[in-house]
Design a protein that fits this description.
The chain has 311 residues and is α/β, with parallel strands linked by helices. The protein has helices at residues 45-52, 74-80, 96-106, 113-122, 138-150, 168-183, 195-201, 219-226, 273-282, 297-310; strands at residues 4-14, 20-30, 34-38, 60-65, 68-69, 81-84, 156-160, 187-192, 204-209, 212-218, 229-235, 252-254, 259-264, 287-294. It has 2 domains: 4-224, P-loop containing nucleotide triphosphate hydrolases (Rossmann fold); 228-294, Alpha-Beta Plaits (2-Layer Sandwich), CATH 3.30.70. It is built from 10 helices and 14 strands. Strand 4 (60-65) and strand 5 form a beta hairpin. It starts with a strand and ends with a helix. The mean pLDDT is 86. This is ABC transporter ATP-binding protein. GO terms for molecular function: ATP binding. Pfam families: ABC_tran.
Length: 311
Amino acid sequence: MSDAIVRIEGLRKAYANGVEALKGVDLDIRKGEILALLGPNGAGKTTLINIVCGIVTATGGQVLVDGKNWLQDFRSARTRIGLVPQELTTDAFESVWATVSFSRGLFGKPRDDAKVEEILKRLTLWDKRKSEMRELSGGMKRRVMIAKALAHEPDILFLDEPTAGVDVELRRDMWELVRKLRADGTTIILTTHYIEEAEEMADRVGVIRKGELVALGDKKGLMAQLGQRTLKITLDDPISEVPSGLSEWGVALEDEGHTLCYRFDSHAEQTGIPQLMRRLDELHLGWKDLATHQSSLEDIFVSLVHEERAA
C-alpha cells in the first residue's frame, strides 16, 4: 500500500438511460495533500465525489479508505470523510450554532461545545452563531457548509466547487482557510472551474473528461508534461502570410500579421529557435521584440477540453 489515504480503483457509474458518468477511474489520494479535480460540467467530478462520500452508488469498482473497503466498513469510512456540497442546503430557520452542532451529532460524535466554538471562530462565524441561516449572505452560508463538514472532525475533506458564487475577496479567504486545514493534517480534494484556484492551492491536479481521468500530476510536472512554450516574434512590418521558407517550423501568424508564433518543447535538446532566427535573417524579415510564454494549467485544460469537443 502506498501513502494513499483514499484509493479509487476502476470506479464506474452508468445510469439506466445508458449514460456513463464514470468510466473506470483509478486515483490515489495522498494523505495530507490538496488535490484539485478540474473538468467541464458533466465531466463526472461531482459523481466521483458523491460515490466516495456514500451519496451515490457505484456501478463497479471500489474505494479504499486507509486500505479498508468503504462499503464493507461504511460507518468508519464515512466518519473519516467530510463533504462540502455544491448546493447550499440548510434549514433556513436554524441558527448557525444549531446547524453545526446537529451535524456533529449526525455522525455519533458526543456534544462538544468547545469544538463547535473552535470551528466557528476558525471560519469567522462566531459573531454569527445566533443568526438564522436565512439571514446570511451566500459567502457566509458557504462558510457554514464548511463548518458543518468539519463538525465531526474528519481527516479527509471533499470540497465540491467551494468558491462558486463568492466574490474574489471571499475566495481568497477560502484559500487561506484550506491551507490552514491542510496544515492541521486534513487531506483535501476540491473540484473547481477556476484554473487560478487549482494553480494557487493544489499540490496535484487531475483533469476529468467524459468520465475519465485524462491527466494527473503535480502542477509543475503536469505543465512540463503537457505544456509548451511559445516564442512570439514581433515583426518590424506586418506580413499577410507566413513565408514558405518558414514552413518546417509550423509558425502561425497573429496580431494582424505583426507577430509570428512558434510553439516548442522547452525540454527538448533542440528547440529549433536558433535555426528559426537565422532563417528570418535570410528572408530579410526584421523583428523588434521576442517574448516567450509558458503554457499554464488553463492552457492545458482548454486544450484537453478542446480535444473532447473535437472527438
